[in-house]
Amino acid sequence: MFPDTHHEEVDAMLDEAAVLLVDDDPQWARATARLLEMAEPALDVTIADSLTAGRRAVRDGSWACVVCDYQLGDGTGFDLVETVDEATTHCPFLLITGRGDEQVASRAIRRGVTDYVIKRNDDDEATLLANRVRNAIVSARLRRQVAREYRGKTAILDLLRSTTLSEGLLAQFCRIVVEQNGYTGAWIGAIDAGSDAIDASSDTTVVPQAVEGCGSYLETVADPTGVSTDSVDPAGAALARDEPVVVSSTDAPAGAISSASRVEADKWAPVARDYGFVTAAALPITHDGVRLGILCVYRHRDDPPVTPRRWGVLTEYADVIGHAQQHAELKQSLLAEPTLRVDVEVTDPAAPLAELTAGLGRPGFARVRSTLRRDDGTAQYLTTIADASVDVVEAVARN
């Protein structure tokens, strides 16, 4: 689905990075800002010409990185570090020092500065600074993403341990996908029991079971029976193609998504613009080759891009939902009273159940209450046999 390359992941991490450059030398600041943006087009550099202006910008803006000269007319870069720590969360801070300021650089690391660069006033310095800024932003964003993934997976595991699969659980699951992974909206739907749950077909419909952050949008794209294969939402294409689908409403790539995984988005784009969505992903929820539903997420322009790593997390979420749903259905079938009885005559004496009843010395009836296909290809039966003790059945089964 995604090209597994380091460069594309890094490019997506660096998408639209706002950088604050603080220096009281306006000529150096303008030249450096211009060179930074030339060296790394993803950077959008804003200049502040004093400590006071820098503090105001830090408090009023949202920055991917702060670059500050050590010597400022009304203070030092260390003074701004404190403001950054108070006003932002894990924002990288790069300090520019003069030659001979190795002691300052050492103090900077102890004060929590991410990195430092020695000012040389040449193009090589701008290239070095651009690389350091790039690495600092990517590292910070990756750490935040990993932390979100960990929190999200931990929350989901806690849910699965403490709650049976229900619409309430699915609602909490959707909330975790949105809050812990930075998407604007998400919903989970179940394949309509009246449609074909294994093979894709023109009348397949998915019925929303839980929605977070995109309720109004879903009311627009769904019909009274649910979301079908002809819907403008990418869930329709995922149902029709029986595979994950990613759609972008803009000309720009949706994160690091390869062209092979993108579908034509002309019919989705007008609706997406009304709700501020730029990317949508729909992933079939399956277990043991059976389609159970759909997981859909929606990204606003300001949300983190859909990188290969984030796509992998979504795939894991879909797998977890499928496993949990299958487990819940099995548990329900084991505990619930049967609503339909089917009598089947097994004529092959080598069939396990026929062999078992024959081994009891008087072939008869075995009631199969539930079956479970195991990962090793075997089948497990929950079976009751009338007028036979447990000891006798176990003895015959062992032989």
What does the radius of gyration come to? 29 Å
| Main pleated-sheet profile | 6 strands, antiparallel
Percent of residues in β-strands: 15-25%
| SS-based class | alpha/beta
Which series of helices and strands comes N to C? HEHEHEEEHEHEHHEEHEHEHEEHHEEH
- Helix run count: 13
Give an overview of the whole structure.
Helix content is 44%, strand content 22%. By secondary structure, the chain is of the alpha/beta class. Strand 12 (277-287) and strand 13 form a beta hairpin. The protein starts with 5 loop residues before the first helix and ends with a helix.
What's the arrangement of secondary structure elements?
Layout: H1 6-13, E1 17-22, H2 26-39, E2 43-48, H3 51-60, E3 65-69, E4 71-72, E5 75-76, H4 77-87, E6 93-97, H5 102-110, E7 115-118, H6 123-162, H7 167-181, E8 185-191, E9 205-212, H8 215-221, E10 227-228, H9 234-241, E11 245-248, H10 269-275, E12 277-287, E13 290-300, H11 308-335, H12 352-359, E14 366-373, E15 379-385, H13 390-398
Parallel strand pairs: 1-2, 1-3, 3-6, 6-7
Antiparallel strand pairs: 4-5, 8-9, 8-13, 9-10, 11-12, 12-13, 14-15
Helix pairs in contact: 2-6, 3-4, 6-7, 6-11
